[in-house]
């Protein structure tokens, strides 16, 4: 989980690049903007002023976004904007998949594959 927390800036850079790409479906862009707004917002489900525990909701949102992107968006497109190595993305994908196992696949599909 700590590795995913440290990767949030790289995830933000990837999201910024993907949002500018015209080939990314509009529904995915809407989901990415919503996640970015939540991550940037000072108002969270768990306040960030609580050490460590305050970051849990941010990590989970990041994990859901990463897992959804890697399962529902063309991998080559995601890799084009990922600032790290493919291996680092694969490592984070395994972590994100584990953290988001409780999210029903149908929910992820509805968020990330609409309009695809």
Short description:
This protein is mainly α and 116 residues long.
- Average pLDDT over all residues: 83
Query: What overall form do the CA principal axes indicate?
Result: globular
Number of domains: 1
Helix content: 55-70%
Largest sheet entry = none
Q: Assess the beta-strand content as a share of residues.
A: under 5%
Ends distance? 30 Å
Question: Which oligomerization state do the chains in this entry correspond to?
Answer: single chain
SSE-based structural type: mainly alpha
Low-confidence stretches: none
**Number of helical segments?**
7
What order do the SSEs take from the amino end to the carboxyl end, as H and E?
A: HHHHHHH
The Rg value, from CA coordinates, equals: 13 Å
How many β-strands, per DSSP? Answer: 0
Notes on the structure:
This protein is an all-alpha fold. The chain has one domain. Helix content is 68%, strand content 0%. The chain has helices at residues 2-6, 8-20, 26-40, 56-72, 75-81, 86-99, 105-112. Helix 2 packs antiparallel against helix 3, helix 3 runs antiparallel to helix 4 (56-72) and helix 4 crosses helix 7 (105-112). The longest helix is centred in the middle third of the chain and has 17 residues, at 56-72. The radius of gyration is 13 Å and the shape is globular. It starts with a helix and ends with a helix. The model has no long low-confidence stretch (mean pLDDT 83).
């Amino acid at each position: 989980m700590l590795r995913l927390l440290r990767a949030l800036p790289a995830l933000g850079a990837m999201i910024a690049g993907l949002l500018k790409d015209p080939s990314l479906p509009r529904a995915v862009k809407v989901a990415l903007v919503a996640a970015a707004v939540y991550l940037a917002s000072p108002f969270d489900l768990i306040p960030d002023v609580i050490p460590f525990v305050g970051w849990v909701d941010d990590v989970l949102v990041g994990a859901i976004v990463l897992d959804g992107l890697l399962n529902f968006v063309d991998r080559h497109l995601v890799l084009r904007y990922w600032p790290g190595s493919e291996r680092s993305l694969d490592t984070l994908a395994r972590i994100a998949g584990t953290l988001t196992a409780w999210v029903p696949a149908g929910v992820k599909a509805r968020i990330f594959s609409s309009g695809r």
